[in-house]
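Hi D.,

Good news: the full-assembly prediction came through. Inputs first.
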Amino acid sequence: MNEQSRIDIRGVTKLYGPVRAVNNVDLTIEGGAYCCMIGPSGCGKTTLLRMIAGHETPTSGTISIGGEDVTHARTGSRGTALMFQNYALFPHLSLTDNVGFSLKVRGVPSAERRDTAREMLGRVQLLHLADRVPSELSGGQQQRVALARALITKPKVLLLDEPLSALDEFLRLRMRVELKRLQNQLGITFIHVTHTQPEAIALADQVVVMDHGVIDQAASPREVYNHPHSPYVARFMGGQNVLTGTVDAVDAGQTVVRSKDGTLYDLPAVAGAGPGDTVNFSVRRDRIHLASDLGGGRNCTEGTVANIEYQGTFVKVALDTGSREEFVAYLDVDRYYAAPNEVGQRVRASWEARFNHVLPGQNNSTGTPHED
Amino acid sequence: MSGRSSPSGSRLAPYLQVAPLAFLMLTMVGIPLVTVVMLSFWEFDGIAVYPAFTWANYAEVLGSPVTLKLFLATLKYALLTLVATTVIGFTCSYFLVFHVRSLKLQIGLFLLCTIPFWTSNVIRMVSWIPFLGREGLFNSMLIQAGLIDRPLDILLYSDFAVVLTYIHLFTLFMIVPIFNSMAKIDSNLIEAARDAGATPAQILWNVIIPLSKTGIALGSIFVVTLVMGDFFVVRVMSGGQSASVVSAMKNNIDQLYYPVASAMAVLLVAVVLLMVTAILRVVDIRSELAR
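Then the structure:
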């Protein structure tokens, strides 16, 4: 799309003493894409972002922007701009001077700098506050100033470090829309670090799921959500039930897996899996049917209803199936209330075989999705 | 904004809380100051003081060409000391805040700065004498190194010695407030400046110095008032060759010329107040501290 702002990360490792914050990461972010890096705290997403911005230098590996190796290029001269989590506005400068700061250090004459800064403030609808200092602004306004300050250098890549985490729910949703609109307008690459799954799904063209310094999966949001690579991704992105079993039989184009309680599941062919091997697979929560008639069948599981939540557009029923993890079903509101369940009732959850999705990835960590 | 901390707390509580300090300030500062001002307007014939209003004391002080010389000499000391302590205080704080990564080491080094204060001012001052004297350590070192063949006289009993002692005595009063305001600078601000393409020098000039202003101003007030009010260091370290406003005042007091000394004191208070006001005009300390 836009070769100027394409980012190639090749074999990048960052060591902090013995700790591998980022471990041999390869990633290509297409120019003009909206990329969300997601993962729990300490997964290395912020370190990766800071290395792209030049605030950290990789221990090994290279980072290129638009085909140009910037691994060791000075911050501020590599075409990136970073928006900080707490905005990091200069408390002693007016909004105009905050926004015009990078022009000032580049030696742009005062009058020209002020004009450009005011024009930028106008774009984020804050021109009327141009002479105020940041402490007189609300959180949402401060964020828009930070955005204006980052964009005034016309960066090829805008890096956002958890930009929405300090805002309240209402503002967060509004800013989310705003960010997406801005990215469409500017056509530059946005890299957005977050730990909130709906944020990533809603914004991104490319979702990069990280854990323990490595990338577990990098793909489009639909791909990541529907076809998670590993049990960890499935759990972290949410919306999936993760199940485990051992291979019972391998047929042409089909693998039959038996779970601990003896139920059989029909999975698509699992590459390289022979009888006796352990296989993880998942099924989407909104593909489940609940029935009160128990016993028998394939592609199902039994459990006791542990919790029922009405969510407006669907009903969330959590089952205790005797495994460590809850089994969750999202049910259609009308159909659920035609035959509602009770907490403590024993039910059978079943689904069509085609909804079984094999998780080839090995990362089986718990992952705690944020659902807001 | 904030509600009453205790519903039973009466309106009197805040006044009672400030009462002890107010009492001390009134008796220890207020009354003596009023006495001095009063005395400066009383008549004096060289032997006795009469409680009658006169401008004569001020006329004598302001009419004497020595007064201006004294004030200029004292101001010179104050400015030289201010410049040196600011530079030293700023660099020390900068090193402590931005180069020492571990908090423990930071606190340790900070305490090191205070070690000289474990002894009295007088000892710290006097200990310069054997070091700087004609036969002192420094001179003999230079002679033995072959750098000079006669001892340098400028080292001791000179303006140089006075200012050097001031710097030694008062630099900590500069380090503490600057360190304090510098430590409050969010490290993200410096990264943000770096991200905007600022060089280290530009970060220093555009971010760190403006945000350390409060500390510099507070330290300046300490240093200026301390130097302007000193007479002991001037007397000992200049060997009696230089005088400051207060040392002249001391001479007047020794001769029991109280009203003249009072007039000079009032003048000095006015000058120091003007200087502090000037510093406060440059930096709005109240609003900066509230931040």
